[in-house]
Amino acid sequence: MIFAHAMSLLAQTAPTNELPPLLVRPLPVWDYWYLLLIPLCLGVSIVYKSIKCQTMDRVPREATLIFMWILVGMIAAAGVLAALVGIVGR
Predict the structure, then answer these.
(1) Which of 1, 32, 67, 86 has the fewest CB atoms below 10 angstroms from its CB?
(2) Cα-Cα end-to-end distance for the chain
(3) CA dihedral over 48, 50, 55, 56, signed as positive or negative
(4) How far is residue 43's CA from residue 23's CA, in Å, rounded to a whole number?
(5) Which tens digit of pLDDT belongs to each residue from 32-64?
């Protein structure tokens, strides 16, 4: 019953060919895109440690630790790749 009602509501709405402005003109982050790595790593580390820790008291310390490890790993990987590009590009 609910499914049929939802389908009838969808059938009544006319589709538009307009895309949201954010999809047509994305935010200009090309100058500082690498800084978006920080909130991404922070979110991943908090969620991961929230699932893995036995108590929530340990989450801030362990999430900070894994956050630092992820950042160090990403910086090391960027350095290795930059060196590899420099060697191959000669």
Answers:
(1) 1
(2) 67
(3) positive
(4) 24
(5) 888 999 999 999 999 999 999 999 999 999 999
